[in-house]
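Next up, sample data:
>
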Amino acid sequence: MTADEPMLTCYNPGCQDKKYLASQNSDSSCRFHPNMPIFHDGIKRWPCCKKSSCDFSTLLSYPGCIQGPHNPDKPEPPAVDKSKEEETAKNGEESAKADTSKVMEQLFASQQAPKPQEIISVDRNPSEPMVKLPVKVMPSLTNALAKLSSEPIKLSSGDETLKINDPTQILTCENFGCSVKITRSEMDSKNWQLVEDCLHHPKPPVFHEGLQYWGCCQKKHTDFEKMRNQPGCSNGYHKWTKGISKAKCRFDHFDNPALLTLNIYAKNSDPGACEFEANSCRLRVRIVYGVDRQQFQKDFDLFSTVDVSKCSVNLNATKVEVKLSKSPMQSWKAVEQIPPPPTPPVPSES
């Protein structure tokens, strides 16, 4: 070994030393694998000794299965047939163009406006007599009403607890500044909702920088009790905490060609006070619901015609389901008829 003898690199697969001196290279200097490793489905293995691993570093740590001299010659990459490579690239470009064209066609087809549905023309007769629809009380509502009738209701007008529809139940006017109280029997004996004897404040109180005042009459106070006891500035109708009052209910629908289900979200409806009537093109509902006896009433001018004999109503604890059997069968764009767009005004001739 000379001082200036260079270190050589061994290119045998699996050689653990890699660096060696030519003067020390013998037939037993290198332990290596005679074949290159194979990679398939995440597994790396030596085909000569069948050793395998998922980790490449672990594969390289396996000692070779034969002995021989170190190999200083770097292996040449396998020759590639240029004609086959060009043909493969050309086929790949054509395939990519075909795939792109197919994708664009599908995208264009998906973005095209759907064909408008053909509306079947029907004869509408709104003056047909209204027919009461059969009503079915579901078990969920039966259980909810039984629970409400057995439990006392605590009113905001006092600490006493009274049952629903109790004639001694105390009702308080909800208008700002009005403190009138009556019993339910007194309200039933008089038409209190039509008597304009409620002296109240039409606007709520305002609290600003230590001052309290009603938003309608602007008389400011520093003491809350004085502000609350200030007489009202406007006359109007009483608004009782209990009793039937008009309300708005949210509703939506589920549509298929044969049946439209109208869901009206009214909790704990009263089966005895609710009314459902319909003819071939109109639906009228009146729902009394809740502990505070609110009333939802609406007439629906239906989108198309229905078979009244096959329509029905289900009363649930949280909603009312009105099932409308369509005649003829077709999809509806909405529950009610869609009004035509307004006609633009005709410009006047000067």
Summary: The CA atoms of residues 135 and 313 lie 5 Å apart. Confidence is low (pLDDT under 50) at residues 153-163. The first helix runs from residue 56 to 61. Residues 131-141+244-325 form a domain with the Immunoglobulin-like fold (CATH 2.60.40.790).
